[in-house]
Amino acid sequence: MTSPVLVRVPAKINLWMSVGGPRADGFHDVATVYHAISLYDELHAAPSDTIRITVEGRGADQVPLGPDNLASRAAHLLAGTMGVADGVHLHIKKNIPVAAGLAGGSADAAGALVACDALWNLGLTRESLAGLAGQLGSDVPFSLLGGTAIGTGRGEKLTPALARGESQWVIATASYGLSTPAVYGELDRLRAGQVLPEPFIPERVMKALMAANPVVLGAVLGTDLEAAALALAPGLAEVIDLGVEYGALAGLVSGSGPTIVFLARDPSHAEDLTIALAASDLVHDVIRAHGPVPGARVVEAVRA
Fold first, then answer.
1. For residue 16, which phi and psi values (nearest 5 degrees)?
2. Please, are residues 48 and 72 in contact by the beta-carbon 8 Å criterion?
3. Which of 129, 205, 237, 295 has the largest count of CB atoms under 10 Å?
4. Which residues are catalytic, by number?
5. How do residues 146-191 score in pLDDT, each as one tens digit?
6. Exposure of 285 by Cβ count < 10 A (0-12 exposed, 13-18 middle, 19+ buried)?
7. Per CATH, the architecture of 5-161 is what?
């Protein structure tokens, strides 16, 4: 084993998400534009006799520590695949809200793969880690990659997107979570009986990614999951309206929600929007971030 390592891994938002009907395996085909933002979880990986997880930070009391923990599953999958007998103590510092549509669990799984690969001196390629990531969840491969990328299949098939410029985001969180399966189930109910097209990303979205202009980008943002999230949590519509009233270029539900993300014109506008939203009683917390940023990375080796 090596010295302990520290890994940082970002949250994601979906700039666009087109969702097909339910597949035989229960998943849905999607066409989505993933975007990694500067809201990070950190994972400290240290040698241990067993694989164990501890958590601190935002929403730590909501994170399972047993076999349902995605970071734990990632460590076990990597150890089993590579025949590693060593353990690891993964201590997760949560900054990404839990059950918020920001892929916090997926981020921790990706971070665990990177951390354990480094700690156990495996030297796996990103492609090899991505193959394992796809077995853990639809968003985990993107949490490894980061940046801006097109996701197809159930989201695990990635192509880096041709995108320019940096975007400024204001993230409004709720005091509750939404279950991703429940949101997809509500979407299926809302669209029952409809003939659905294959998921696709419109040309206008691809052009907006290249424009490096927040006004152009704000005009094309959208996700099919928003209608279902708003049906389950109608109060989110008030949050979107409030942000737009304060000048946000766009406001939309992040992933399956209930987090709302707002696109700002520039850093100064993002600061003003943050202050305005924080003063309301409609949101639980307000966080500023920018994107795109890289995926899960070893920050440094640390002393035990």
1. -150, 140
2. no
3. 295
4. 12, 139
5. 999 999 999 999 999 999 999 999 999 999 989 999 999 999 999 9
6. middle
7. 2-Layer Sandwich (3.30)
